[in-house]
């Protein structure tokens, strides 16, 4: 007669029940963590939507201001279509708009920095809870990504958006500065061309009738250098000492004015060259930063793919663990029934 195997069977059943209860508790714990993580992702998504919405509004305003500057540039550089008062008013309004956009950009940047700092503090305060979850993963769940890594990816993406806005603000500001400088150059040229030529004297009585009759238009054509020298000597001989002194003084003043204007023109040319160099450097920086932004966008796509892949692997691991637990339970029940059957037959 076979021995009584009922106590052994009960021990097996107790061990199987304990294993099932432990597995169920682990699954419930993981599900609760995923729900909490999903809620946190929803919150981050809400913040992300609000942040992106504000950035899109700022970008829209910048694009509209850039269009306005391009449309008004032709009239702005023309004295007949816009008066100086209208140009000054446009300058003031444009400066105020750009200043407001800078303040808006600084506000968004500070907001993102503070949000990221608070998120990191929250993850650090809950690091022990995440470590318990990650310590229970098996080999099939090795692709699980920590939420802090996701937060870092979102932060890098938002910084890329802010850099793009910063480039737009600098571009619009440089465009506005360029047309202002072109206006200044045109005004300087007009002032230079409209400078009145100094006259020999304001009073007609300063010269004698003989001196008035002597002019370039009334003089005979000069055919040789000797004739020109002779004509010059005759003209000088007919002028008095006071008239010669007045001519010399006016000649010196005119020469000084032309020298000053020449210095201003050289200064303007130097300023234009500096502006061109700065514009070239800015274009190079814009190109490099555009490449960096594209690289960050590509990295963001890779992060999203990794997150989806990790979630898929986690679901597979849960299903595999559930099937293993069910198979173990059914196997234990079948084995117990078989043992009871053998005991009954024996």
From TrEMBL:
Pfam families in UniProt: Syntaxin-18_N
Keywords, ordered alphabetically: Coiled coil, Membrane, Protein transport, Transmembrane, Transmembrane helix, Transport
Membrane topology: Single-pass type IV membrane protein
Domain T-SNARE coiled-coil homology: 255-317
Subcellular location as annotated: Membrane
Tree of life domain: Eukaryota
PROSITE patterns named in the record: T_SNARE (PS50192)
GO biological process: membrane fusion; protein transport; retrograde vesicle-mediated transport, Golgi to endoplasmic reticulum
GO cellular component terms, semicolon-separated: endoplasmic reticulum; SNARE complex
Coiled coil: 222-264
Main location: membrane
Stated family: Belongs to the syntaxin family.
PANTHER family named among the record's database cross-references: SYNTAXIN-18
Protein name as catalogued: YOR075Wp-like protein
Species the sequence originates in: Saccharomyces cerevisiae (strain AWRI1631)
